[in-house]
Amino acid sequence: MKKVLLIILLLTYWMDCFTQIQPIEFDDNGEFSQVVEVKATAQQAFQYCRTYLSKQIKEYQRAVQIEDANTNKILVNYQFRFLEDAQPLAPSTKSYYDAYELSKLSVDCKDNKIRIKVENPVYNYKFYAANMLMDSGTNAEYWLVNGMGLDKKHFQATRSNEYLRIILGMKLYIQEQIKNEDW
């Protein structure tokens, strides 16, 4: 019974945090900016965001561009992999992209809020049809990515889910750390 109650409480807590985060709306360049409220000072938020990102990003120290405790700003090169179905070249073939998105992820911390921005997305991709590599390249223009035979809604949902995972995880991590400080 205690386990069930604990699960219900955790789900309620998670849903409360998730509903406070706005859906991501990408601009014409595939970029976005979002402000999230947190109950932390700018310095606390900076330290916790730094720790959280260091756990989420492989080779974090290599990814860091800026980590400034005076301005409470973090800028990192962020990368994630995605597989996306594409329009088939022939009716019986399966076509897909195996790609990585590279972007600049910045976190600016102020008292009781953080701003997360994603800028300059670049897509390194390999296009496969019938499990054969057909094309590969780098595409820095978001509108071209949406024109490569991808399902635009699914592609944007994949990106949105990845960045919402980072944002929600960061917010929950900050809240948990503040809670632990106030024991």
Describe this structure in words.
The protein is α+β, with helices and mostly antiparallel strands and 183 residues long. It has five helices and six strands. The protein has helices spanning 2-19, 42-56, 60-63, 142-146, 152-181; strands at 32-37, 64-68, 73-86, 95-110, 113-129, 132-139. Strands 1, 2, 3, 4, 5 and 6 form a six-stranded antiparallel β-sheet that branches. A hairpin with a 2-residue loop joins strand 4 and strand 5 (113-129). The longest helix has 30 residues, at 152-181. It is elongated and about 60 Å long. The chain starts with a helix and ends with a helix. The mean pLDDT is 86.
- Which structural class matches the secondary elements? alpha+beta
How far apart the termini lie comes to 25 Å
Query: What is the number of beta strands?
Result: 6
Give the overall form. Answer: elongated
Q: How big a fraction of the residues is strand?
A: 35-45%
**Continuous helix count:** 5
Helix proportion range: 25-40%
Q: C-alpha Rg, in Å?
A: 19 Å
Order of helices and strands: HEHHEEEEEHH
Which regions are unreliable across 5 or more consecutive residues at pLDDT < 50?
Answer: none
Q: Average pLDDT, to the nearest integer?
A: 86
Largest sheet: 6 strands, antiparallel
